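Checklist before submission:
- one chain only
- standard amino acids only
- sequence pasted in full

Submission:
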Amino acid sequence: MREFTIYNSLSRKKEKFEPIHPGMVGLYVCGPTVYGDAHLGHARPGITYDVLVRLFRNLGYKVRYVRNITDVGHLENDADEGDDKIAKKAKLEQLEPMEIVQRYTNRYHDSMRLLNTLSPDIEPRASGHIIEQIALVKNIFDKGFAYESNGSVYFDVESYNRQYRYGVLSGRQLEDLQSNSRALDGQDDKKSSFDFALWKKASPEHIMKWPSPWSDGFPGWHLECSAMSAKYLGDEFDIHGGGMDLLFPHHECELAQNTASRGKSGVRYWMHNNMITINGQKMGKSLGNFITLDELFTGNHKMIIQPYSPMTIRFFILQAHYRSTLDFSNEALLASEKGLKKLLQASKDAAGLQVSETAGDAGVAQIVENIYEALCDDLNTPIAVSHVFDAVRIVNQVKDKQISICNEDKERLVFIFEELLSGVLGIQDEKSDDKSHEVLDGVVRMVLDMRTDAKKNKDFAKSDKIRDDLKALGIEIKDTKEGTEWNL
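Returned file contents:
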């Protein structure tokens, strides 16, 4: 089995990946809070951890992939006060909260399916694990790291910090948090402003609430992942993933809860993908640069000049390392669209290449190794993609009769496009299973045959008109030695 290195946010360095159980990987990823349509920011973790799962399985690991759905307890501004985000949306739309949850969960799944991400093996919801969360609060309470105040239960950060250390994941010092903290409105129940809620007493008008030993209320947002990851992956598992914005306070609080209840952090490797910016700015509704995936796919947004396919979005995201900031722009998407066409065309062409028994080594075996080396080096997808383009170059050289390849190299090229580009990176032809595309292909071929006849009859005016009319419809044609190719 190939060696895989992973950047661990806890140690702040790349480490050799060594699973707790040989040949098996336990992965927990923080999923969305489902109170709105999936947006561009959801695409990056969806695709990043999808490639990670695909790679591990390609390397021969058995993977249990758990991704949660947050449907309760996530309050406004990621704080311990204010409205529940889902309950607030439910009031605005005059629906039951679980109607909101189901509606936007379905839409999230639809978007992830279009992006060709694999479904998780388990997708637990916070509201379905209230019993486990109450048990976890009791455990932390019994260990002396929590206190009750007016029906709510808070994590005692100072008490925890005396025995362990709060801030090890994010690099924060409690002393700095204390000096920079201030009394917050509505948080008089807390001993300190940096203590966080494990259980919140619900107000009379609060919709989503459950009975507990302390009050009718609901669990704190940080609690759900600690409870559900332990239930499905055990008290200690391999990788916990999520966006960089979750590192503090969400994952920091989660790590503290794990340690307080179990005496250990519970996670061997903490993995965080970076953010997507838009024209250099952080994406946000208040800035007017917020864009949903549906708007990207349909082109129905003032910031984009055309629709972009899900595969274009996926390819765009893979061209930056997951730990790097990725800047979104029309120019970047147009470049991704162009590069994607080249990859997909080469993928189609690879299987039909002519081979020669006398051909020498074309270097394809080394390209395969280079792709694996990049992917196994902390999931370096942009370097892996650059090596796939090395394979594209060889395909085109063989097509143009510039070089010859042996059958083994042809099989390796097919492996690169089918097993690595499609199977691991998840890039596939969106038209491949589309009946309408088959019909369109047939119609275009009929028109191209008419153009071929016109050229044979030296009716170049008619030939040029067919080419120009097709171009006006968005169909590009290219004459090659093997015939005429077309692309939308």
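Reviewer check: The radius of gyration is 27 Å.
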